[in-house]
Specification:
By secondary structure, this protein is mainly alpha-helical. It contains ten helices and five strands; from the N terminus they run αβααβααβααβααβα. Helices cover 61% and strands 7% of the residues. A three-stranded parallel sheet has the order 1-4-5. Strands 2-3 form a two-stranded parallel ribbon. It has one domain: Rossmann fold.
């Protein structure tokens, strides 16, 4: 694990205590940028989390909207392969209530910005909250709204390093 400062470790420990979430009992969804985006520390944490999940026979969940991103030409082959072996959600027509939830998530994430620029991100967050659990991302534009999304929809949005801290806690119990 990369070296982390005392404040970072303290933040992660308090998150683990606050986060009532067992990654082995809930759905865990990765954003495409959580695999290879963000800082080196976040990329390392993502790789370690993936290894732990694989070792403990927990498949990575990829939402259909993220899977579409993994299939793009510009995506590194390693990520394309990960997309092929992951469990996936399927695209379904949204009910009126779900459309309203997606609209609300869009309001939270986009604010006064242009919705078309964040459409995919909003859909990722919507889909993760639909199935419940945890959404791992290194996208600061999503992460900065984690507490508002949690308060309204009960979805944990965490960075790869935060997820790794929670995963390590529960891996010791399995």
């Amino acid at each position: 694990m990369p070296h982390m400062s005392a404040p970072v470790i303290g933040k992660l420990c308090s998150l683990v205590i606050k986060m009532d979430f067992n990654p082995y009992d809930n759905f865990v969804f990765f954003d495409s940028c959580a695999f290879d985006g963000g800082t080196v520390e976040e990329q390392t944490a993502s790789l370690q989390a993936q290894e732990i999940l694989e070792k403990n026979k927990k498949k990575i969940m990829v939402m259909y909207s993220v899977d579409d991103e993994l299939k793009q030409e510009s995506t590194p082959n390693k990520l394309k392969e990960l997309g092929k072996v992951s469990r996936k959600t399927v695209k379904l027509n949204l009910t009126q209530s779900e459309k309203e939830q997606l609209d609300r998530i869009t309001e939270i994430i986009v604010g006064n910005g242009k919705p078309e620029k964040r459409k995919a991100d909003c859909l990722h967050v919507f889909e993760a909250q639909k199935y419940g659990g945890c959404f791992i991302t290194s996208d600061k534009g999503i992460y900065k709204h984690a507490s508002a999304i949690f308060n309204e929809f009960g979805l944990f949005i965490v960075t790869p390093s935060e997820f790794l801290a929670v995963l390590l806690k529960y891996s010791e119990q399995t």
